[in-house]
């Protein structure tokens, strides 16, 4: 059942453009990259204060084998594991140009201690050499690694939930869509590395699930972000036609797993999220939502990363319940009782 919580409740306000909510409009790629680079070192320490000691940390595992940091992942496992757990695979945000898994370590640990094996992922980002196809390729390489290796860490590769914040949420959503829609997978020349039935759910934190908003007046990102993600920087292509292949919202008709979506009216991508919610409901696809009003000053874009906020703790509580529901162990496995799980060294 879909649930929406807007807290605190308030009377509907007159419509505003994204630039009125955020004070920002048409930010160029170079400025966004510079801002993200400046924030990263502070976020690493801020978000990981008071680390969680009830999980095991397996850091910087190379999931491709080429030794670069963009192809490293972390696996976080709760202590005293007695039976295989669902697997939560998470992609960090950063505007497709920057970011790293390291600031998300405490976020990942928070979910692991709630009863799941968490895979916290790095991936290649947009550059002169890499476009969005490379991000999807890395995402599918992660899923291939998970399917072959996660049992060593106590995870069940048939019970996977994908998730991410901002650009990472977009990657997770489009990965999910490629597993359900052959036409989208063919467009990116990708062969999904996992059975879609094993993708039990999707978590979206302030995601960019509808790229059509980039054409809206006053949207925070310039259209060069769209060009940046396209092969050849989109030369000779219709940007609106190309945006369809970057928009998870356009690829729901062949099915989609349950979604847990969190956003707020202070989120840069708020309208994109609300469009996605409406599209899911119109197709009677299951979606749970946690949506905060503008009165919640902590609930800014990707606030979910910062565990100190009560709004983040509510996200974690709801996320844990979502994963337990959509990725529950099969009844046959539960009836056999708990068995020790061999853990990776």
Question: What this model shows, in words?
Answer:
This protein is of the alpha/beta class. It has one domain: Alpha/Beta hydrolase fold, catalytic domain (Rossmann fold, 3-Layer(aba) Sandwich). Helix content is 34%, strand content 17%. It has eleven helices and eight strands. Strands 1-2-4-3-5-6-7-8 form an eight-stranded mixed sheet, sandwiched between helices. Strand 7, helix 9 and strand 8 form a beta-alpha-beta unit. It is globular and about 55 Å long. The chain starts with 17 loop residues before the first helix and ends in a 10-residue tail after the last helix.
Largest sheet: 8 strands, mixed
Subunit arrangement of the protein: single chain
What is the averaged pLDDT score?
87
* Helix content, binned percent: 25-40%
**CATH topological fold name:** Rossmann fold
Low confidence ranges = 8-15, 334-345
Secondary-structure element series:
HHEEEHEHEHHEHHEHEHH
Q: Into which percentage range does the β-strand content fall? A: 15-25%
Instruction: Give the number of DSSP strands.
Output: 8
Radius of gyration from CA coordinates? 19 Å
CATH superfamily: Alpha/Beta hydrolase fold, catalytic domain
- CATH second-level architecture: 3-Layer(aba) Sandwich
What is the overall silhouette? globular
* SS-derived structural category: alpha/beta
Count of separate DSSP helical elements: 11
CATH top level class name: Alpha Beta
The spatial strand order of the largest sheet comes to: 1-2-4-3-5-6-7-8
Give the N-to-C terminal Cα separation. 40 Å
Number of domains: 1
């Amino acid at each position: 059942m879909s649930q929406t919580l807007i807290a605190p409740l308030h009377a509907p306000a007159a419509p505003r453009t994204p630039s009125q909510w955020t004070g920002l409009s048409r930010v160029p790629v170079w400025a966004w990259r510079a801002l993200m680079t400046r924030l990263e070192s502070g976020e690493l320490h801020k978000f990981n204060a008071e680390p969680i000691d009830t999980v095991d940390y397996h850091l910087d595992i190379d999931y491709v084998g080429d030794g670069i940091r963009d192809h490293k992942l972390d696996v976080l496992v709760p202590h005293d594991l007695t039976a295989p757990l669902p697997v939560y695979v998470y992609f960090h945000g950063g505007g497709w140009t920057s970011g790293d898994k390291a600031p998300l370590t405490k976020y990942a640990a928070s979910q692991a201690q709630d009863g799941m094996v968490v895979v916290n992922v790095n991936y290649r980002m947009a550059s002169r050499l890499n476009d969005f196809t490379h991000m999807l390729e890395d995402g599918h390489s992660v899923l291939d690694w998970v399917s072959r290796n996660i049992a060593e860490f106590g995870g069940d590769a048939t019970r996977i939930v994908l998730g991410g914040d901002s650009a990472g949420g977009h990657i997770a959503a489009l990965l999910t869509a490629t597993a359900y829609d052959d036409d989208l997978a063919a467009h990116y020349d990708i062969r999904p590395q996992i059975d879609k039935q094993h993708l039990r759910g999707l978590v979206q934190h302030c995601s960019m699930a509808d790229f059509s908003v980039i054409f809206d007046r006053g949207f925070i990102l310039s259209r060069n972000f769209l060009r940046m993600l396209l092969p050849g920087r989109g030369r000779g292509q219709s940007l609106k036609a190309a945006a369809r292949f970057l928009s998870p919202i356009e690829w729901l008709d062949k099915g989609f797993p349950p979604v847990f979506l969190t956003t707020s009216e202070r989120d840069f991508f708020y309208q994109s999220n609300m469009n996605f919610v409406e599209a899911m409901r119109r197709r009677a696809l299951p979606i749970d939502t946690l949506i905060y009003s503008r009165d919640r000053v902590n609930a800014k874009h990707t606030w979910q990363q910062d565990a100190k906020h009560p709004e983040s703790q509510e996200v974690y509580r709801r996320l844990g319940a979502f994963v337990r529901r959509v990725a529950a162990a099969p009844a046959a496995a539960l009836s056999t009782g708990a068995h020790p799980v061999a853990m990776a060294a």
